Amino acid sequence: MSKNVRLKHSGLRDTAIVGVGATPYYKRGESADRSINQLAGEAILAACADAGLSVRDVDGLAFYSLARAGYADQMEAGEFVETLGIRELRFSAALTGGGGGSAGAIGLARAAIVAGDASIVVTVMALQQRTRLGTVFAAKASTPLASFVQPSGLAGPGHLMSLLTRRHMHQYGTTRDAFAEIAMSTRANALNRPKARYREPLTHDQYFGARMLADPLCLYDFCMESEGAVAVVTTSIERARDLRQKPVPVVSVAHGGTREWGRAFSWFGMPDDGTFASSGHKSIAQRLYQRAGVTAEDIDVALIYDHFTPMVLMQLEDYGFCAKGEGGPYVLSGAIRHSPERKPGRVSVNPHGGQLSEAYIIGATHIVEGVEQMRGTAINQVTDAELALVTGGPAALPVSGLILGRDR
Amino acid sequence: MSETGIATALPAELVRITTDPSTEPFWRAAKERRLVAPRCADCTAFRLPPTPFCPHCQSASVEWVELSGRATVYTYTVVQGFPGLADITLVPVVVDLPDAPGARLVTNVVGAAPGDVRIGTELTVDFHPISDGWLLPVFRIADPPLGGE
């Protein structure tokens, strides 16, 4: 079987993403004239319109992050059903954890569809920065577990991940040049995107002149504090083929992770065998590739959760794009720069500008880009891309991953 | 933003801890200026933060072991400023505890210039007042350096 034929039949392919929708992406505070549920509703209606479906026909909701909208707000299924005019809800569930489950929420939608519980399932995330993400932990009430981390002054997720970053630099000789390359290459991908928050090139001098937020991480290693909402509609592959858009099959999806990663940044006890200085995604990558019958070499475009630049590097290692510890030299070779032509030993990473430069909606924009790449409609399209990898955030378990494909 | 100063811990009134039955012995000991860690009474594995079950053998039996207070820096960061405290310099660290292998603490190095902290730097425990009369274990650079393991 030729590679293209093999890839067209690999994996699950029993469900497909048929609609994506999003609000504009706003800077912090800019969407304050609307409630977070209005933002979410706009995204849901846009995703249904994209699919050629009425929102009345939605019968399932598959959230992640415990159906939280960002950090301060909670989404309620009943509110969406009643206020958007959904006729009957037959499935409503959320992955536990936080942004680690973004990609995996599509697996939750798939589970509902394959089980026959629901047929048209919406996944939605909305975010406003009324509680600033950058210092979210400084504002949180203490818990018995947080009492072992919070007092040290680790005020936000970037502070936590700077500790993994330092260890990676120590163990593998990784340098800040690698993080700069991730920030600059992601920015380069955002320049031609009308919706991107940051559309000016980022220079080496700007990167190294920026203030340190949690040494060794500087301003440009952190994703932005943006606002907006994104929704995704998933249904069965059969139904998908009757809808408006080219179906984007779910080829593989997995969430979870191992005990050695566990609570990750609220524990910091991960073993010193390459687990501590990692993304926690290694077991997800193995399961994802096994279910899909593919390897990293088959992935044409990688939508890697980029809340912090070094976590992109560690995911590239855990997903097998390079060997463990080789992430620095790999990105510095130019391997992740977007190119329309797929070349061996390289992969286009976050051609949508990611959360560093387009918008941060807790991983949901990566799913949208994966769908557009598989439809062939992406602004920075990888020509004839057959497989897109989408990852959830390195975080306390569950973490997750998703492989999207093209239909037959 | 000001120049990096000597690392300190957050002011007492900004640090509020809560406890549960698993963690309370840790904090009660700290209040007496003792650093302790839970060791599984069945398989002798240490664990931190304190939790109800041993992840290696699932036992719920725990012995609280008083530690020497020695630690080494496993990893660290340097943070200039905290919400409401622009001038504070913090060096949050994850430390290995040589007499509680397998257990780590997330804490602060205090009383040192951030540039003097490295992975592997040897530390000794001290205790810093926080809200509600509790004491927080923090660490100072060991002087003179302690002998290695």
TrEMBL record, chain A:
- Taxonomic placement: Bacteria, Bacillati, Actinomycetota, Actinomycetes, Kitasatosporales
Q: Where is the Thiolase N-terminal domain?
A: 16-197
Which InterPro entries does the UniProt entry name for this protein? Thiolase, Thiolase-like, Thiolase_C_2, Thiolase_N
Q: Where is the signal peptide?
A: none
Q: Which Pfam families match?
A: Thiolase_C_1, Thiolase_N
At the top level of its lineage, which domain of life is listed?
Bacteria
**Protein name per the record:** Lipid-transfer protein
Thiolase C-terminal domain location is 278-392
UniProtKB/TrEMBL annotation, chain B:
Which residues are in coiled coils?
none
Any one Pfam family here would be: OB_ChsH2_C
Q: From the record, give the transmembrane residue ranges.
A: none
Q: Where is the ChsH2 C-terminal OB-fold domain?
A: 64-128
The ChsH2 rubredoxin-like zinc ribbon domain is annotated at 27-63
What's the domain of life for this entry?
Bacteria
Tell me which SUPFAM superfamilies the record gives. Nucleic acid-binding proteins
Name of the protein in its database record:
Zn-ribbon domain-containing OB-fold protein
The organism named in the record is Streptacidiphilus cavernicola
